[in-house]
Amino acid sequence: xxxHICSTGCNHFSHLNDPDLQGEFKEARQSLxxxxxxxxxxxxxxxxxxxxxxxxxxxxxxxxxxxxxxxxNKTIHWGYFSKTMEPxxxxxxGDYATIxxxxxxxxxxxxxxxxxxxxxxxxxxxDANSKAVDRRGAGAMDDPLGAGGGLGVHVCTGPxxxxxxxxxxxxxxxxxxxxxxxxxxxxxxxxxxxxxVASNWxxxxxxxxxxxxxxxxxxxxxxxxxxxxxxxxxxxxxxxTPQTDPFGVVHPIIDYPxxxxxxxxxxxxxxxxxxxxxxxxxxxxxxxxxxxxxxMVSSIIPSxxxxxxxxxxxxxxxxxxxxxxxxxxxxxVGDPHASQGDAELCGTAIECSLTGLFQFILHKKADLPGTKxxxxxxxxxxxxxxxxxxxxxxxxxxxxxxxxxxxxxFKKSSLDSAMTDAFNKTRRFFMDTRNLTEDExxxxxxxxxxxxxxxxxxxxxxxxxxxKKAVFPK
Length: 474
Known about the structure:
- This protein has helices at about 20-35, 110-115, 120-125, 395-400, 405-410, 415-435, 440-450, and strands at about 45, 50-55, 65-70, 75-80, 80, 90, 95-100, 155-160, 170-180, 190-200, 215-225, 230-240, 245, 250, 280, 285-290, 295-300, 305, 320-325, 330-340, 350, 355-365, 380, 385-390, 450-455, 460-470.
- By secondary structure, the protein is α+β, with helices and mostly antiparallel strands.
- It has two domains: about 15-385, Acetamidase/Formamidase-like domains (Jelly Rolls, Sandwich), CATH 2.60.120; about 385-474, Roll (Endonuclease I-creI), CATH 3.10.28.
- It starts with 18 loop residues before the first helix and ends in a 6-residue tail after the last strand.
């Protein structure tokens, strides 16, 4: 693979309009709507309903496979990445997978986001005697808040093992298409819902100007499940009140994922954001590969391996590149969003379950020199017109602070350090992959690169640099 500048007639993003792929994804849409919760599609069923079937390739004599990965309590891991997990499936470079993802905020409105959805119901099942997915986070199993301690909150589908992937390689992940997950409740047929939580970890939380201070507010949004409408609208909001989980633990604030909200304990306000239309841009907030530094790490904190870096550009048509640091790469995806602004200021986006069609391409270490992937040690995002470099307050927080040193990371995270990292990576990108001098790189960055705040809520703050591909020599 060599660097390529897209132009009229270019086929670099031809996978977006490939009739075979679109046919497969149309079938996936129909299957999902007909049987909410990931019932197996036609094909040879594997673990927990994962299916495989051949998909014609455009290269004569070759075939690639397509997998359908439902989201249920057997196909997800909650709140962590792990290099030691048993992979959900193994695929080859070039293969495709349609992957369901479930928002960890579904229990903010059980009627709209869980009821009638077999996959979601299997994940969120929790009563006084049992809990379908006990571990939620990378913390201790005997944590007083609950197993895993909520040190990681996202429902992650995976991991997926890419055959032949070795440390030093780069994994390319193309997001071919996305769809909103329709509500399984017949009362809300044809609609999708998401939750925005103005939370205690939000940037705004200690800077509220109206009473009562220290409040957490959940706003439920409605999205058209067909994708025909391009906007979301608020349905109602409510203030978090202390919730008692099925095991009897009281949660005065939102401190553990998946706690079911008792409707009788809240006061819904339906007079909220009347007339406002929020542009829908579905994307995956948490996407990446397993890091090597520890056996289990929180899903909350983004790093060089990707994870929860919350860039709304990670949607249909985008391609992500991740440095491989463990055998098989061990890819997982979750934290689906219907929409988000840069910074994700209040702590969350519109947290909304999605299904995505992905293609996986492996780039071997020996083939990287002379390409845009040379020296890649951070998540790189590409769209048809841009390259997006991701900087963090700590480029590798596990190496700098250790798996148990996240409290120090949280204290030291700042936009200054994230901006410095984004600049350093962008300068190195131009010098190492475009053969510019440092003076040339600095000038080009200053006059053409747009820096933005990715997020300020995930413990390891992020700044991204947007490089317009149009500036490259033709």
